[in-house]
User: Fold this.
Amino acid sequence: MLLAIHGLGSDSGAMRAYLEGAVPAGVRVLAPDLRAHGASRLIGGPDDFALEAMAAEVADEVARHADGTPLSILGVSLGSAIAASIARSGRFPLDRVALVRPAFTDEPLPANLAVFPVIGRLLEAYRPQRALAELHRSGAWRAIAHESLANAHALEAQLTQPRAVERRIRLLEIPRNSAYRLGELRIAAPTVVLASHRDPVHPLHVAEAWRAELACRMLVSPARDDGEAAMFAWFQQQLGSFLVGVR
Assistant:
């Protein structure tokens, strides 16, 4: 079984862009919506958005669907941090783990995630259209746009999604998590880190830190600004190669 975990402010449907054509025939894919994302009706308080709590919820979902075969895990952004937590928990036999565009580090609220609490506070203070205008004026958004307009514009969806205001706590609390402690990030299964050029929310130095901690391979995709279709085609190709033989 393949567990596919989406990123912050995204949903399970976004995983299709990474997995289309990449999953071997007959492999069952479990792609849950995280708390306060997608079709999930759960919101809750700050403690519910601790990384360990979110990972435990996903792991409980896996346990309900487990069929005894080793688990393969794919996580994107926040999903990478959750994937690593589940992989290290010992709850499931592992096959392989793919960590795509990791964004969380060994410190809470790293600079690359600072834009998310900004968006959360804007959702609290303004209607969506005014919030969007204020986002464009913020230093956090402008710093991202200076490096990558494509990634900056992708962040705008955080303001316009259904129930964005109601779910703003996810943007305020989740970036406060650290993903690992230095020297303790070990996964007992073949692991790969997939990153992207010119992605200030998921910067290469963060992916390189994960690669160094895990002592695993890292591959780097074309930049989103050079063509989103080409970027996702690259991810599909690399994940297709990595997932050969998954049961």
Notes: The longest helix spans residues 51-65. Residues 145 and 186 are 34 Å apart (CA to CA). The radius of gyration is 17 Å. The domain at 2-106+180-242 is CATH 3.40.50.1820 (Rossmann fold).
